[in-house]
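U., I forgot to send this yesterday:
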Amino acid sequence: MLSAEKNERLTRVGPGTPMGELLRRYWWPVATHDMATRVPVKRRLLGENLVLYRDGGGTVGLLAEQCPHRRAALWLGCTEEVGLRCGYHGWRFDASGSCLEQPGEPADSTFKDRISATAYPVQELGGLIFAYLGPLPAPELPRYDLFVWDDAWRDIGHAELPCNFVQVMENSVDPYHVEWLHGRYGNFLKELGGSGPLPVVGKKHVKVAFEVFEHGILKRRVLEGHTEEDEDWRVGHPLVFPHMLRVGAAGLATFQIRVPIDDENTWHVWYQTYRPEGGAPPRSDIPVYEVPLRDERGEYLRDYVDGQDIVAWITQGRISDRTKEHLGRSDLGVILLRKLYAEQMDAVARGEDPLCTYREPHEVIDLPMEKDKFGSAVEFRQLWTRESSIRYSPIKDEIFELFGDPVPAWA
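Result:
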C-alpha cells in the first residue's frame, strides 16, 4: 500500500505538482488528425484547458483556452488564413501566441506587440497531433516505429475514461490479470452466453520478470508448457515510459497510449498498425473511431478484452485509494513502475532530463516486441482483431482480408 501523501504525489498531474512537472517533459497526443479543423475545439491535457485549431493556411495551433484580452474562451472564435481570431472582440493570434491584430485599438498602437496568448508547440506524426506543455527548449518528438512505418495500415480508436492514468498504466505491468480477467472472467461470460472459451488468454503464468531499460520497463513471462527459450521470455514487450504499452504479434502491433486529461480522467488511445509479411499495400487514410464504454442499457461493456480492462480500471475509483490495497509478490511490476515514477520525478526536481527524453534528431526508434506471442502468434492476432477495441474499427473486415485469416472456430 501507499501512504495518502505518496498516492497524491503519484496521481496529481496539474502544474507545479511533482508528477505534473515530470509529465510536462514529454510530448503527448492531444488529438487525432481529424479533430484539428477550421472550427476550434476544446481539449484538456494535464489539467490545463486548451483550444486546438487548424488555420486556413494549414497550420495547427494549440492555445490556452482563455483570451488574454477579456478572458473569453478562444473556442468561441474563428480561424483565419493565419491564426485564430477571438469571437468576442476580434483579437487575432498565431500559433506561437503572438497577437497579430487588435480591432478597436488605434492604427498606430503598439499594444499588440506587448500581448500574447499562451501557446504550446504541436507536431503531427502518424495521424496524431502531439503537444508539449513543458519548459523550453522542447525535446525531440520520439519517432517510435509504429508512428513512422511506411508499409503499414493504421487505425486509431479512442475513449475518455473517468479515472486517473496511473491505474491504467499499472495494468500494463500486471501480467497475471490476463489469465484471470480475460481468461477466467472473460470465458465465464462466454460460457453464460453459450459460446466456447477464448484461446490463448487462459494460459497460466509460471514465471514473470520486469526490468528497467532504455525505453521504460521490459515485461517477460513464461506460460504453462513454455520455457525461457520462447519469445515471451527472450524478447518480451515494453511499457514505454511514461505512458504507453506496446503489444501485438504476427503483423499486428498496437500502442495503448494513456493521456492524462486531469487527475481524474484519461484519454485512452488505441493506435493500431497492420503490417503482414512483406508489408501492407499503400493506404493513405487513417480511420479514427470512438470506443464505447456502455451498452444500450447503460451497463459497462465487459464482453471483450479491452472492455474488461476498462471496467477494472474505472471501478477502482476516479483515483485509486492505494492506502487500502494489499500488494503481493504478483504485484512486483506495479511496485517497480511506482518506483520508476518516483525516481524520475526526483530527477526532474534536480534539473535532469527524465527517462525517454530525446535531444538529438532521429529517424526511428525501434522497440522490442515478441512475434510469437503466447506461443501462438496467429491465434493471438485472430483473438486481438476480434476481442479488442478493433471490433469497433470501420475497416475491421478489410483487416481480416489483409491477413487472410479464416474465421476461427471459437468466433
